[in-house]
Amino acid sequence: MSRVKRGTTTLKRRKNILKKTKGYRFGRSTKKRQAKEALAHAGVHSFAHRKDKKNDFRRLWNIKINAFVRANKKPISYSKFIGALKKNKINLDRKILADLAENNPKSFEKILNKII
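Structure tokens predicted for Large ribosomal subunit protein bL20:
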């Protein structure tokens, strides 16, 4: 049976790991063991933060809607605005409302006038 030398496979594996950790600080970008560990932790954090990102955007949308609602002629609170939307059966989600408030204030004002 012929001899198998594993240098090329090992080097390729190391190179791939280090390519993924490019830009990391200290030994995590140059040493294989530290890079591998850093990648494992990065994967955990990226999974968790993908979930957090949804919450962050929802908060941002709430802030945008609240700012526009309170800046109007008849200022009401955000919670009363959302309650009135549901009562009048206007099914627009917060993402769409925030976009309307920011980019198309006239149409958002029409919605607001319809509620008040």
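Residues 32-71 form the longest helix (40 residues).
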